[in-house]
Amino acid sequence: MFLWLIAVSALAQELDPSAQTDLGEPFFSKPFDGAYGTSGFFDHDPEGTGEKHQRTAWGSVTFGKSGHVGWDWVLPVGTDVFAVADGVVEFGGDRGDVGCGKNRRVPSSVEVYVRHVGPDGQIYRVGYLHLDRARVTEGDVVRAGEVLAQSGNTGCSSGPHLHFVVELLANQLALSGEKVDPFGWSGDFADPWAVSTGFRSSWLWLAGEAPPVIRHQRHQASGEGPQVIGVTNVAWQDDRRPNAESVTLALSLESAVNRWPLDGVMIRNNGGDTYSFPEGMTLRRGRPIRLYSGVGRDAGQVVFWGNDHGMWDDTADCVWVLDADENVLSSRRWGRGRDKPCPLEVQDW
Ligand SMILES: [Zn+2]
Fold first, then answer.
1. How many helices (H) and strands (E) does the chain have?
2. What is the pTM of this model?
3. 70 Cα–ligand 1 center, Å
4. How far is the CA of 86 from the centre of ligand 1 (A)?
5. Domain shared by 32 and 157, yes or no
6. 157, CA 20 to 30 Å: which among 8, 66, 70, 224?
């Protein structure tokens, strides 16, 4: 609780709208009641820069899926989701299987998109994804605060949450636009997203209406899925010979399935470095996969991170196995405090 309070108060300062470089003309009211953890931030670093983190609206770096240009809040299934402004519904309903990359199919993807005209005459489209039920449909005229849907866990999602995305459209006829961050930009350097796309994010929340930003408390490993069964790290000169280090993953015996697709699954160290498995790779029961820190050719059950130096601290570190939404599938610590779990909270502020 103590740490939580620190995190919340620190953020309250960082999200002071007056710190914005472009205040804009706010007109959004809150998309839901109450306070829920934030599991994904709008990533202000454009894709293709090679980084593997999210650059927050206030300029800091946080661990998360790179290229995520929306916000995720961990709303329990069934939570009312509101229109943030008066507008017209462009789509409300189930888009079916939207496709979640190789090998992954989903039965339904319930989404709502609403168009709004801002006080500055700009046209915005706000999307609400992973819903359980949509309560509006195309053409409906909605008022700010009106219930649009109940949140859920549909589409490409591995846990209940709301994905909230804002686009700025060039005109009423535009079918798509540029993603912008409704939390604007308050970093002390130029917003990389604006530099890259030409679209400046401005603070869009009316006074007191911005959802609180609280780092999501990751859930404990369920005992399902990939588990770390071995770590080879205390090697001589592993910093010069990174392949002296490895981490071995196996499918948990408790898993109800015999195969676990590794698309989107990440391995992370205490320093925040992450490794993502090659597309299409699957962990099979009884066939462990070993990840070496150095360079080599992926083959069968052996994969290489591709570094020219060690990735694991010999004295104390944590291996985290995370899914695409940063949920901890499993973790393992060694060195100091090795009997304790790895911390579930990432504190980058
Ligand atoms: Zn998201």
1. 2, 22
2. 0.64
3. 6
4. 23
5. yes
6. 8
Per-residue pLDDT of the chain in tens (349 residues, 90 and over written 9): 333 333 333 344 346 666 776 667 899 999 999 888 787 889 999 877 767 678 889 888 776 677 889 999 889 899 999 999 999 999 999 998 887 765 667 889 999 999 999 998 999 999 999 999 999 999 999 999 999 999 998 988 877 889 999 999 998 888 889 999 999 998 889 999 999 988 889 999 999 899 988 765 444 455 678 888 777 765 566 778 898 888 989 988 777 788 999 988 999 988 778 899 998 999 998 899 999 999 999 998 999 999 998 898 877 788 889 887 777 788 888 776 666 667 654 332 2
Give the Å distance between the CA of 327 and the centre of ligand 1.
13
CA of 42 to the centre of ligand 1 (A): 8
* Tokens matching residue 264: 């989107």
Ligand 1 centre distance from Cα of residue 161 (Å)? 8
Residue 209 lies in a domain: no
Query: Is residue 27 in a domain?
Result: yes
What is the CA(65)–ligand 1 centre distance, in A? 9
CA of 328 to the centre of ligand 1 (A): 16
- CA-nearest of 78, 85, 93 to 137 is 93
């710190």: which residue's tokens? 19
Residue 253 Cα to ligand 1 middle (Å):
30
Compute the distance from residue 269 Cα to the ligand 1 centre, in Å. 23
Is 89 in the same domain as 184?
yes
Give the distance (Å) from ligand 1 centre to CA of residue 316. 32
Residue 177 and residue 276 in one domain: no
- Residue 121 in domain: yes
CA 43 – ligand 1 centroid, Å: 10
Sort strands 289-292 and 302-304 into parallel, antiparallel or unpaired: parallel
For residue 307, give the CATH number of its domain.
Answer: 2.60.40.1260
Q: Say if 207 falls within a structural domain.
A: no
Q: Supply the range of the domain harboring residue 134.
A: 10-197
Residues 238 and 191 in one domain: no
Query: Helix (H, G, I), strand (E, B), or coil: what is residue 6?
Result: helix
At 118, is the secondary structure helix, strand, or coil?
A: coil
Residues with CB in 5 Å of ion ligand 1: 40, 70, 72, 163
* Helix, strand, or coil (residue 167): strand
Using alpha carbons only, give the angle 163, 167, 168 rounded to the nearest 5 degrees: 165
181/237 same-domain check? no
State which H helix or E strand residue 2 sits in.
helix 2-14
Q: Are residues 252 and 181 in the same domain?
A: no
